[in-house]
Amino acid sequence: MFDQIKKLSLQSVIYGVGHIMTRLVTFLLLPLYTNVFTAEEYGVISLAYAFIGFTLILFRYGMDTALMKFYITENVKEKHGVFSTIWILQFFSSIILASILIGLSPFLSQYIIGDSAHSNILQLISIILAMDVLWNLPMLILRTEERPMAFVGLNLVNVFTTIAFNIYFVVYAKLGIIGVFYGNIVASTLMLMFSFPIVYQRLRFKYISKTLLKKILYFGLPFIPAGIFTMVMELADRYLLEWMVGITAVGIYSAGYKLGMFGLLLVMGFTMGWTPFFLKKGKDDQAPEMFSRITTYFLGLYGFVAVFFTLIIDDLVKINVGDFSFFGEAFWSATNIVPVIFLAYFFFGLYVLQLPAVYLP
Fold first, then answer.
1. Burial 225-240, CB ≥16 within 10 A → b, else e
2. Residues whose CB falls within 8 Å of the CB of residue 328, separated by 6 or more in sequence, listed in order
């Protein structure tokens, strides 16, 4: 049993590093954003990313979850059939949804980003969403096949290109807010290119079937409401703040929320190793005891990390390197919400630990 727990721990660490690197992009760019943009401008960026998080649920409509569920089989033809069916379905649906979003961008931007003048941002977001859906599927394959090093390698590509092109478009090209999304377009394009060999090796049109499609949709579509409500709880706060206080408050709050991301990184790193682990080990006789021990270890580790970062966060944001501060002074008050964010992700971790009851018979 302990060997299995060690294996889960190792994979969680590796996947966690991969996820940390992806999420670390927004954290590493905080010094840039909080020193270059005003709180109001950062509020616009935050609302745009909140919309991306929410809309990804609709673009994926449970197909990412279905892929994780049905790809785990010993039959190679079934593997290829599952992947091919889902990838082709996502390819065409992403194009359709992105086209609709682009067409409606002049109208929707007023409600999503707070200003109809930012419709060009919404158009770029539509393209980012379509590409992110497609390159995310090969990343799920790497998780399912337990290839964490390849997973981390591709995440490194995403991290370095996103940071590099954000710096280029914002600092050197001086494009302002729109430069942030140009940088994301370039990063998503490169991720799609680098992940395509995984798609090419598994895409088999002859294994696509209506029966398989129905089974996949029957399993995946019910996850849409759960995903939507999860993202509403995760992201609605930005829009409530914008409505009640103003977009400047959104910028300060979002910066503080990013500081609390260490809790999310720990939970998501665990989740990426946990999901394929319990799907494979759930039928073992020792599974209940093993899952109980894993719960104890995870919650103990999370509690330590939460307390540690809560104690040091005020000093962390005030670090200066020459004339450049880690966190723009206008955003220092954002540290007040960090303990609350850690508490929220504690409950999210409890939810993740209950997932075997949903997936397993």
1. eebeebbeebbebbbe
2. 31, 34, 35
And the tokens for 221? 């579509």
H/E element, 321: strand 320-321
Distance CA 239, CA 290 (A): 41
If one compares 99 and 72, the residue with the highest pLDDT of the two is 99
Report domain extents, the chain: 2-359
pLDDT band at 88 (very low <50, low <70, confident <90, very high): very high
Handedness of CA 187, 189, 192, 195 (dihedral sign): negative
pLDDT of residue 274: 81
Q: Is 326 exposed, middle or buried (0-12, 13-18, 19+ CB in 10 A)?
A: middle
The alpha-helical segments, DSSP class H, found in the chain are 2-28, 30-36, 39-60, 63-70, 76-112, 119-144, 148-167, 177-202, 210-220, 223-244, 247-259, 261-281, 287-317, 338-353, 356-359
Conformational region of residue 188, where left means phi above 0, alpha means psi within -120 to 50, and beta covers everything else: alpha
Helix crossing, 287-317 with 261-281: angle to 10°? Answer: 170
Q: Burial of 246 by CB count in 10 Å (0-12 exposed, 13-18 middle, 19+ buried)?
A: middle
Query: What percentage of residues in the chain have a pLDDT greater than 70?
Result: 91
Residue in 86, 73, 80, 81 with CA at minimum distance from that of residue 276: 73
Alpha-carbon distance of 73 to 279, in angstroms, equals 11
Q: Reduced to 3 states, what is the DSSP secondary structure of residue 355?
A: coil
Give per-residue pLDDT as tens, 223-270. 888 888 877 777 788 888 888 888 889 888 988 888 888 788 788 778
**Separation between Cα atoms, residue 236 and residue 257, nearest integer Å:** 13
Average pLDDT of the chain is 84
Task: Express each pLDDT in 111-138 by its tens digit.
Answer: 887 776 678 999 999 999 999 999 999 9
